[in-house]
Design brief:
- The complex is a heterodimer of chains A (316) and B (298).
- Helix content of chain A is 79%, strand content 0%.
- Chain A is built from 13 helices and no strands.
- Chain A has helices at residues 2-29, 34-39, 45-54, 61-74, 87-122, 127-141, 144-158, 174-208, 211-218, 223-260, 266-276, 279-307, 309-314.
- In chain A, helix 5 packs antiparallel against helix 10, helix 7 packs across helix 8 and helix 8 crosses helix 10 (223-260).
- The N and C termini of chain A lie close together (9 Å).
- Chains A and B meet through helix 1, helix 6, helix 7, helix 8 and helix 10 of A and helix 4, helix 5, helix 8, helix 9 and helix 10 of B.
């Protein structure tokens, strides 16, 4: 077990280093002089040189890269080129919104998908199954940002129950914050849930055909008991795999959805920084998102081994 | 680990040619999701082709005097905030969508299939290296790569095509390698080896033809994903730039006018959904038709 986890951790570290290298090369080495980019082509050479020194861009590339890596270890990410304030603080401010948004939509996704998947598998080939499966087929085809706009049209423009965007913050208690994240998380969740529901359904159907299910039925367990006690646990592996993969989509989705609802999260920060040519902020945000994706997939890999001991043996 | 919406990788390709082409079409026309998917896909393709020779109005001419007209005999779906005809914009938008999709999937297919075939043929550390690299690419969703590229070289169609193309590669690598490995284990490969063929010839003459149907199915589904990604990137302003019409861009424009002209936000999204739904159904249908052993429970 420990050997399996050790191997996984080494892969994780190697992946993170590779990701940081690529991000650094694309966002720091490739653009040439960031100071020139910030000040525009008309800036005087002296001013550009002064800014280059001030931002530390006159140091050699390897030194800057290692400085960045060291900074990430201790949470010192440098200062924003534009605001002059620490990047770590800027990001932390925005995570207060993006992390709850991602968690809420993942929760809604899982609840919707498991309910729909188990229901359709239990009613295989009946009317409810066909109906829900057709709905998921449509759900997969919806662009999440369009679904978000439709939700705004219905709940903000037509019914006027919720606001069309913006974030209430967490200062007035938890409820106003959750309320303003409700539509965004639903619009992120519905499309993901449609995919996950199909995976859940076929996984449950697969397990239902296994011999041990027949044995459990034969020894007198009811359909319901077999489903909940024996089938679900065994069907969870493919479901978790897809959930792990979906997390990357979910984070990419939050970037889009934050822009639909004008939410001041990480996604908006990235876009403002692109517009401002604030490459140091873009670099750290992209690294953070990539690291989240890699880490979640690592956790999923390790969790499998706990759910299904056969995997760790096969992967040693 | 397999990505969502992928063909099970371990399944080998179609049973060699028992039924002639006519049999395929007879079965195809009876297959509900294939027929519906093909019809929707042809609708989008037809719209794109039509836009090359004819649109009701110009999709580029700005006519502020007739802005935000409701649907009428002259403008079937009305006009946008610049007075451009919505139907014409939708038709030309189909062209942008298909172009980005075809090039991006082409990039993914070319690189992904080559790398996948090499991994299956060479095994050992080559395979390990290719698979680790493709796992790694999964950490960069198209939006992230597009953001990096846009920050450096600026937004545009090329940025979005590159970003989506790169994101397509790992899926094709996995699918190709998985199904190619299954073919490599078959007996006729052993026979070809005994006949003195090398790895390259076996790959081209035996492996590739046998996994072709799986690749076609996967390419159809990846096309749908590329359309979704293109729409999102254009919506964010990272993809197709004005004045070139695109469905994602139209949604962005429409969002500022939700209270005045809500319908403007409905048409482009419906167009995207139709295209994606059509391709997904087509992919499902092709999977059932090309490989009966893959047919799923319905």
């Amino acid at each position: 077990m420990s050997l399996f986890i050790l191997r996984r951790i080494l892969t994780l570290v190697a992946t993170l280093i590779a990701a940081s290298l690529i991000i650094f090369l694309v966002l720091d080495a490739l653009p040439g002089n960031a100071a020139q980019m910030l000040m525009g082509v008309d800036a005087s050479p002296d001013a550009v040189r002064a800014l280059t020194v001030k931002l530390g861009l006159d140091q050699p590339l390897t030194y800057r890269y290692l400085l960045w890596i060291k900074g990430m270890m201790v949470g010192e990410l440098g200062n924003s080129y534009v605001y002059g304030t620490p990047v770590a603080g800027l990001i932390a401010e925005r995570l207060v919104l993006t992390v709850p948004l991602a968690i809420m939509s993942m929760l809604i996704t899982v609840v919707l998908a498991l309910a729909a998947g188990i229901y359709t598998a239990a009613n295989h080939n009946k009317l409810g199954d066909v109906g829900v499966m057709s709905l998921t087929q449509v759900g997969i085809a919806l662009p999440n940002f369009w679904f978000a706009i439709l939700l705004i049209l219905l709940f903000a423009v037509k019914l006027q129950w919720l606001s069309a965007g913006g974030f209430a913050g967490w200062d007035d208690g938890i409820w106003p914050g959750i309320r303003s994240l409700l539509l965004p998380s639903i619009s992120l969740a519905v499309v993901q849930a449609a995919i996950l529901a199909r995976v859940t359904r076929s996984a449950v159907l697969e397990v239902l055909r296994e011999d041990f299910v027949r044995t459990a039925r034969a020894k007198g367990l009811g359909k319901r008991e077999v489903l909940w006690r024996h089938v679900l646990r065994n069907a969870m592996i493919p479901v978790m795999t897809v959930m792990g993969l979906q997390f990357a989509n979910l984070l990419a989705g939050t970037i889009v959805i934050e822009n639909v609802f004008y939410l001041p999260g990480l996604g908006r920060l990235i876009f403002q920084s692109i517009a401002n040519r604030d490459l140091i902020v873009v670099r750290n945000c992209v690294m953070l998102l990539a690291a989240m994706v890699v880490t979640v997939n690592f956790v999923v890999d390790v969790l499998y081994a706990f759910i299904d001991p056969r995997i760790k043996v096969a992967n040693l | 680990m397999s990505a969502p919406l992928t063909v099970p990788a371990d399944s080998a390709a179609i049973a060699p040619g028992a039924s002639p082409a006519t049999g395929f079409w007879r079965r195809a026309l009876r297959h509900r999701s294939f027929v519906l998917g093909a019809a929707l896909s042809l609708l989008v393709l037809g719209a794109a082709l039509l836009s090359l020779v004819w649109t009701p109005w110009s999709a580029y001419d700005i006519d502020i005097a007739s802005k935000l007209h409701p649907p009428s005999a002259a403008h079937w779906l009305g006009t946008d905030v610049f007075g451009r005809d919505i139907v014409s914009l939708l038709l030309v938008g189909a062209r942008s969508t298909i172009m980005v999709g075809v090039i991006a999937v082409g990039i993914g297919l070319t690189f992904g299939v080559c790398l996948g075939l090499i991994a299956a043929a060479r095994k050992g550390w080559t395979e390990e290296l290719i698979m680790r690299m493709s796992d790694f690419t999964f950490a960069f969703p198209a939006v992230l790569s597009a953001i990096m590229l846009a920050a450096v070289v600026g937004p545009g169609m090329l940025t979005s095509i590159t970003a989506i193309g790169i994101f397509q590669i790992p899926t094709f690598v996995r699918v190709t390698r998985g199904s190619a490995n299954a073919v490599w284990a078959r007996e006729f490969i052993l026979a070809a080896r005994a006949a003195g063929k090398g790895g390259f010839r076996i790959t081209i003459e035996h492996v590739l033809p046998n996994i072709l149907s799986i690749l076609i199915v996967q390419a159809t589904i990846q096309f749908a994903l590329a359309i979704l990604a293109e729409a999102a990137l254009s919506y964010l302003g990272l993809g197709t730039q004005p004045p070139q019409p695109s469905w994602g861009r139209m949604l962005n424009d429409a969002q500022t006018l939700l209270f005045q002209s809500p319908m403007l936000a409905v048409y482009p999204g419906a167009a995207i959904a139709i295209a994606v739904l059509g391709l997904n159904l087509l992919g499902d249908g092709l999977r059932d038709l090309l490989d009966p052993r893959l047919a799923r429970e319905r």
